[in-house]
Amino acid sequence: MSSPNPSSLPVHHPQQILAWHHGSPVTAEGFLQDVATLAEKLPDAGHLFNLCDDHYHFMVSFAAAMSRKQITLMPPNNTAGAVNEMLSDYLDSYCLSDKPLSHILANQLIFADLMEHRDAHPAPLPLQVSREQQVALLFTSGSTGKPKANLKRWGELQAEAASALRHFPFQAHAIASLVATVPAQHMYGLATSVLFPWQGGMTVYAGRPLFPADIAEALASLPAPRVLITTPLHLRACVGAGLEWPAIDFVISATAPLSRELALEAEQRMDTEIHEIYGSTETGSIAGRRTVADQAWQLYQGIVIDRRNAQAVVSGNHLPQPVPLNDRIAILSERRFLLLGRDSDMLKIAGKRASLGDLNHKLLDIPGVIDGVFLPPDNRQNGRQRLTALAVAPGLTRQQILNELARSIDAAFLPRPLHLIDSLPRNSTGKLSHAQLLSLLEQMAEKR
Known about the structure:
The protein is of the alpha/beta class. The chain folds into two domains: 6-339, Rossmann fold (3-Layer(aba) Sandwich); 350-447, GMP Synthetase, Chain A, domain 3.
């Protein structure tokens, strides 16, 4: 495929291992062979929903789509509802997945079916993609409203990943492999589980382990030095699992800020370093921090942050134009800033102020609380309304949790009511949809 300013991928030499798939190594040459095979089988279309859960299947499908100049659609989650809701906007689309998915109205193709006749492989060619080529449409999580589409060009994704690989100690530690607990259908997951291996010459674990024991087993199966890519939710589970962990050079976490307490405990229990990525679907990743060492974030080289009409705006490097941030920040210096939360997170009750993010941290820091979240009142301007909270805390009573909260938060922000539940409806990156939380509360009210 020829195009202006082409960029080859991956950077591995042909016999270097790119992925471990079901216990077997896949070389870069084998990967390109699979890409060529799949590309021949894809239908003519403008867009596809890549719902492959297996990281290697996603990687092959993403590359094959690029070679056919098809744009990969990445909805906020992989549910049938999310896909079907988008179909009317993308009539020229189809769905590619690991297995048949129920209730999805799009034409479905199964990865294994398309790859059945591997003996008749077309000759693998170096995959070259124009930096200007539009390759993905990523949608925000919808946690603060309707999901929004963000178009990504190949050069933007490449530049972001290159900046992150320089910012974090990948080269200093000579990282050989990584395991990701996050899905690839997300800005964070796409960058770390696809772009990082392609551009960093690393081996990626093809599966997506979710439970601590599975994560530890996956890490142990890969050559060291190794990195774990995860979320605060998974990290909390790993800390509480009481496992012996294989050597992990460092961990990268994102999707929500870590508390210093959780980061410190994770470093001690897992004998590693915990780093965080800051970014969004709109910006990609733009900054990082070692949580236990500094609460301030450091911007990637080439990223600039300033204020325009009282709003923080970032520009430079992989961003084609300036992007306003949804978070409130305090700029400390040219490349350092503090995250103060979102304007939408700020609460005022009984004349007092607090942020939802801070309240959530305090709830999750209670021993025995596995998961939990505060919900704001319907009318934030009414200072008499009370907060609601949901907690997953087997073995604890409501009163025990309220007593612990009373030690660290003002009485005005104690939740009334506090519901104890079995689980929260988090998506695959650990985020919560406001609409789903309201629906859960309505269901609970109907049962009473």
